[in-house]
C-alpha cells in the first residue's frame, strides 16, 4: 500500500491540477488574451486565395484627383458620369455597380437629378447609407447596440437605386474581421452594400450571424489583390473598353491614402486595405458561400478540463521526454484540428489551449523537478549513513518507488557481527580508551560493509547488522556479504596485533551469515522509524553469529548452496543447536573464498 508521503504527493498533484484547470477556465471565460488570440486566428485561418474576376474596382485614386482636382471639390456629376458611361453600352453594361460614397442631403438640384436619373435608369446601382450605433433604452431595457441615427442618400437617389449600408465594426484590437449583414432602422431591413450587390448579381444564401448580426469574413485577397489600376478617369476618358465591364460587378469608391478610407484587416495587419477592397472581399465570400461559424464558448470551455486534466497528469507523473512528447503532440494536434475545422466552416479559439498547455507543461515540469529534488535530498539523507554511495546513486536513478516504503518481502543476505572479548577488555581500560577501541572496530565493520555494497542496518553496542539485496536488487549479493565478512575477519587480525602491542590484550569477530526471504522497509512509527529487515532469515543470522567463536564465520547451508564451487567450507553438521531451529539445521564454517 502507498505510504503517507506518496498519498500526500498525490493529493498535492490533484489539488494543483484542479486549481490550474479552474484558473484556466476563468481566463478562457473572460477572454483574458482576446487580442493575442484574434491575432493567432488571423495567422492560422486567413490566407489569400484566387480573387473573383467578376469584381472590378474603379478607384477614385491619385490619378483621378490629379486630373480632376481635389476630391472635396468634386461635384456629384463626376460619379454620375462614370455610372452613365459604364451603362452606355448594351453589350458592356455591368451587372451591378456599387458606389461606396455617401451622398447625403440635396446639393445642386440639376446635378442631383442627373445622378439619381443615371443611377435608376437600369436598376443596377447600389448606393451607400450608414447608421450610427450606441447605447439607448429600448422597450425599457438598455440596448448597447441601438441605432441612434441613420444617414441615407438624398430622396431622389434612394428612390432610384438600391441602398446598402457601409458600416464597418472593428474587433477589440482594431482589426476588421466581421461584416454586419443587415441593419433595421425604423423596422426596415437594409442589407450591407456587399449583400445588396451580391443579391443583385445572383442567388445568394445568407450566412448565419451572431446575436448582433455579424458574420466572420474569410478574406480572399491581400490589400491590392482586387486592384487592376483602373481609375474613374479611365472610364470617363474611354481608356478601358466598355465590354471589359460586361456582366461584372463594378465597385466605385475611394482608393487613395489621402481620402482616409482604409483599415487594418484580418488578412494583413501590416498594410491597411481600402474600404472598397474590403467590400470586394465580402462580396466574393457571399458569392462563394464561403461562410465560417464561430463555435460558442461553452463547448470549447468544456474541452479544457478534459484535455488539460489528462495532460497535466501525464506531465506530473511521467518522465520528461514522455511529457514533452505529449505536449508537442497535443499542442500541434489542437492547432491542426483548428485549421481542419476552419476548412469545414467552424472557428475555434486558437491560442488558449496552446498557452494553457505551455503553462501547464512548464509548471508541472518545474513541480516535478522540485519534488524530485526534495525526494533526492530525503533519500540521500536517509540512506547515505547506511549504504554505499553507489547504492544511493542507484536508488536516486530508480526513483523512490525502489525503496519499497512500508515493507516488502525481499530475498536478502544478512550478516551479524560481534566483537568477542570486548567486555572483558573494557573492564581493564579507561573509558576514553574503550571508546577509541570500539570506534576503531565499528569503523572497520562499516568500511567492510560499505566497500562490499551492503546496507548497514544498525549498531547495537559492539555488534552490528547488515544486509545485501535491498533496498535495490543486487547481482551476487550473497558473495558480497561473505566478502564483507572475510574482510572483517582479516581486518580484525591486523587490528588485534595493534591492540596487543598497545594494551597487551586483543579481541576478534564472531560473524554469522544467512540468506533467505525477509520483510525489508521502514519499520516503526511516523515519529521514529528505521529502515531495517525482519523475519526468520534475520533471526537465524543472529543465532549463527551468537554461536560463532572469535575469528570464525558461521554460514547456513542456504549460503553454501548459493555459492557452491566458489567457497571452501567445513561443515559442523547439526552439532550446534540454534535457538528456535529444529533438529538437523546444518552450520558451516567459511574457510576461504576461492575467487
Amino acid at each position: 500500500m502507498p505510504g503517507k508521503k506518496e498519498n500526500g504527493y498525490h493529493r498535492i498533484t490533484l489539488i494543483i491540477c484542479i486549481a490550474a484547470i479552474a484558473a484556466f477556465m476563468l481566463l478562457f471565460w473572460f477572454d483574458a488574451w482576446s487580442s493575442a488570440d484574434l491575432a493567432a486566428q488571423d495567422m492560422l485561418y486567413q490566407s489569400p486565395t484566387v480573387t473573383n474576376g467578376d469584381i472590378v474596382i474603379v478607384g477614385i485614386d491619385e490619378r483621378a484627383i490629379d486630373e480632376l482636382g481635389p476630391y472635396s471639390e468634386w461635384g456629384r456629376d463626376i460619379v454620375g458620369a462614370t455610372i452613365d458611361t459604364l451603362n452606355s453600352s448594351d453589350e458592356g453594361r455591368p451587372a451591378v455597380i456599387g458606389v461606396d460614397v455617401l451622398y447625403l442631403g440635396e446639393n445642386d438640384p440639376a446635378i442631383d437629378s442627373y445622378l439619381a436619373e443615371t443611377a435608376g435608369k437600369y436598376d443596377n446601382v447600389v448606393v451607400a447609407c450608414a447608421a450610427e450605433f450606441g447605447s439607448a433604452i429600448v422597450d425599457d431595457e438598455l440596448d448597447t447596440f441601438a441605432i441612434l441615427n441613420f444617414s441615407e442618400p438624398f430622396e431622389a437617389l434612394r428612390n432610384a437605386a438600391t441602398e446598402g449600408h457601409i458600416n464597418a465594426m472593428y474587433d477589440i484590437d482594431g482589426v476588421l474581421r466581421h461584416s454586419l449583414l443587415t441593419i433595421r432602422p425604423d423596422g426596415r431591413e437594409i442589407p450591407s452594400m456587399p449583400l445588396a450587390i451580391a443579391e443583385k448579381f445572383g442567388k445568394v444564401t445568407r450566412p448565419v450571424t451572431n446575436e448582433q448580426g455579424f458574420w466572420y469574413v474569410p478574406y480572399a485577397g491581400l490589400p491590392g489583390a482586387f486592384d487592376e489600376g483602373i481609375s474613374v478617369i479611365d472610364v470617363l476618358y474611354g481608356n478601358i473598353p466598355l465590354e471589359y465591364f460586361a456582366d461584372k460587378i463594378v465597385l466605385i469608391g475611394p482608393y487613395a491614402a489621402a481620402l482616409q478610407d482604409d483599415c487594418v484587416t484580418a488578412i494583413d495587419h501590416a498594410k491597411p486595405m481600402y474600404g472598397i477592397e474590403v467590400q470586394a472581399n465580402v462580396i466574393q465570400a457571399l458569392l462563394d458561400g464561403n461562410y465560417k461559424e464561430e463555435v460558442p464558448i461553452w463547448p470549447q470551455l468544456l474541452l479544457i478540463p478534459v484535455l488539460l486534466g489528462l495532460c497535466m497528469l501525464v506531465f506530473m507523473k511521467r518522465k520528461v521526454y514522455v511529457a514533452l512528447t505529449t505536449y508537442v503532440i497535443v499542442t500541434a494536434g489542437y492547432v491542426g484540428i483548428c485549421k481542419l475545422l476552419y476548412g469545414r466552416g467552424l472557428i475555434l479559439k486558437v491560442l488558449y489551449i496552446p498557452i494553457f498547455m505551455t503553462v501547464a507543461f512548464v509548471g508541472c515540469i518545474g513541480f516535478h523537478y522540485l519534488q524530485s529534488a526534495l525526494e533526492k535530498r530525503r533519500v540521500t539523507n536517509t540512506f547515505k549513513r547506511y549504504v554505499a554511495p553507489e547504492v544511493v546513486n542507484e536508488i536516486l536513478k530508480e526513483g523512490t518507488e525502489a525503496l519499497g516504503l512500508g515493507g516488502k518481502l525481499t530475498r536478502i543476505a544478512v550478516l551479524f557481527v560481534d566483537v568477542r572479548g570486548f567486555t572483558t577488555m573494557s573492564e581493564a581500560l579507561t573509558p576514553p580508551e574503550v571508546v577509541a577501541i570500539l570506534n576503531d572496530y565499528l569503523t572497520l565493520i562499516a568500511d567492510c560493509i560499505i566497500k562490499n555494497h551492503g546496507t548497514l542496518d544498525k549498531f547495537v553496542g559492539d555488534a552490528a547488522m547488515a544486509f545485501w539485496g535491498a533496498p535495490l536488487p543486487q547481482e551476487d549479493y550473497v558473495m558480497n556479504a561473505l566478502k564483507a565478512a572475510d574482510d572483517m575477519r582479516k581486518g580484525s587480525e591486523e587490528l588485534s596485533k595493534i591492540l596487543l602491542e598497545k594494551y597487551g590484550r586483543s579481541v576478534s569477530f564472531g560473524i554469522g551469515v544467512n540468506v533467505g526471504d525477509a520483510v525489508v522497509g521502514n519499520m516503526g512509527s511516523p515519529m521514529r522509524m528505521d529502515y531495517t529487515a525482519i523475519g526468520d532469515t534475520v533471526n537465524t543470522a543472529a543465532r549463527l553469529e551468537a554461536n560463532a567463536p572469535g575469528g570464525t564465520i558461521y554460514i547456513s547451508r542456504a549460503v553454501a548452496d548459493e555459492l557452491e564451487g566458489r567457497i571452501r567450507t567445513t561443515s559442523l553438521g547439526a552439532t550446534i543447536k540454534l535457538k528456535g531451529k529444529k533438529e538437523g539445521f546444518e552450520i558451516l564454517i567459511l574457510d576461504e573464498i576461492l575467487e
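The radius of gyration is 46 Å. The longest helix spans residues 352-383.
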